[in-house]
Amino acid sequence: MAYVQRKIPFVGTPDTNPETKPFFDAAAQGKLLLPQCKATGKYIWYPRGISPFTLGPVEWKEVSGKGKIYTYSVMERANPPYCIAYVELAEGPKMMTNIIDIDFKDVKIGMDVTLKFIQCEGDGPAMPFFAPA
Amino acid sequence: MSLRGAGYIVGAWEHPTRKATDKSVTLLHAECAKGALDDAGLTKDDVDGYYCAGDAPGLGPMSMIDYMGLKVRHMDSTDVGGSSYQVAVGHALEAIQAGRVNVALITLAGRPRSEGQATGTAPRAGSPAQPEMQFEYPYGPATANMYAMCAMRHMYEYGTTSEQLAWIKVAASHHAQYNPHAMLRDVVTVEDVVKSPMVASPLHRLDCCVISDGGGALIVTKPEIAKSLKRPLVKVIGVGEAPKNQMGGEVDLVYSAARWSGPPAWEMAGIKPSDIKYASIYDSFTITVLMQLEDLGFCEKGQGGKFVSDGNLISGVGKLPFNTDGGGLCSNHPANRGGITKIIEAVRQLRGEAHPAVQVPNCDLAIAHGTGGSLGTRHVGSTVILERE
After folding, report:
1. How many domains does chain B have?
2. How far apart are CA A79 and CA B253, in angstroms?
3. What domains appear along chain A, each with residue ranges and CATH number?
4. The pTM is what?
5. Which residue of B129, B138, B253 is in closest CB contact with A71?
6. Can you tell me the distance from the alpha carbon of A72 to that of B142, in angstroms, rounded to the nearest whole number?
7. What CATH number has the domain bearing residue B17?
8. DSSP state of B274
């Protein structure tokens, strides 16, 4: 099942939740920035302004954009179909994303993937997607 | 103080409708309330506690209390999706034990079928203030593909197969043939399931529950009142509730919140899974059932596929009769929330009022477990264990 790029929806704006704006500002520059818990050093998904591990402060850090597919599902009922996934980043956290630029029959758990940004429809922000490495 | 036996379910009623084009959601709620009160032999003036969830129109419980003309002194509208009604039973027990409630009414109703919702396959945009929304909605999370990602990972880690998942639907269909109200009454085979169209890989159309209108209601009351009524005594002996989520990115999709809601319920009840004669297990999808059975301790983790195979969930055939009304997979899933019908069928089994073809002989211990929300992101598991006294 060939990959066809779909329109990516978005709700709100990058400053709806002011503390996550660094994520969107970095994405506009093609960088994936995640909050890191200052106390534990753990990277956090989804982005937020406080650590769910300690309720302590976070620091925004750029990550490598390299990861492996943890799990996925191809929504065959959608038009065009798309492949939702959790990707386990090299830095640890698993993030929700889509797998792109691949025939969906070739998607496998454990596959190495790499970061690619796509802009959301209606002049929305760029968001991180993953393609085969 | 343990909640064991603090309350009894004395009224349980399921709306027979599966398509209610001529009725509002509020009317369905009220009809369910009346049905459960009649079943118990009580009236609305006996009700002093009311419990509902997000399917009830209006702010929390307020509109429904007004609409039904209730006078209550305790209320709760904790909304955790389809397992809210198991949670409500537990919260009602706490209130009864604390002397805050004598007769608790719990209602659920909805009409997603009449309203034409593409419930399982269409991503739904929520408020961007919901903290995960901007980081998930762009990726198209619907209901089906969230549960499908759990199934995909379960298959990868444990070798679970589509054929094993299909046995869950097969068992439900064997039961649904005897339920005149069930939406899908045809008995299906493993082959039928795995050859049905793929919705969200690896889940096929027949791995998914139905979309239906309808509703149900329960009456929970204190022992003194329960024993004064003319109904079989169904005692609540165990309750548990627990959330599970993405844990800051430490996502693990091969188990459900039942791993945490089950143990306190088993401990309170003082029984173990092998004591259970009948199980109502939330069946939004086949994978939901398989994971909950493992996490509740009916089999070892990863062995769910083997456990559900070869008709083991079929009443009169297997070791653990489940969802003998046909469940969400075949009968109904009112308001896209199957928690209350799970409790209602467990009550029928304990009373000996299930269809004779699926009634479990000497059914004295039953479980009704719910999973509300999304197994792939955030959900709440809630467990209720019941005993026929």
Report:
1. 1
2. 26
3. 18-132 (2.40.50.840)
4. 0.97
5. B253
6. 13
7. 3.40.47.10
8. G
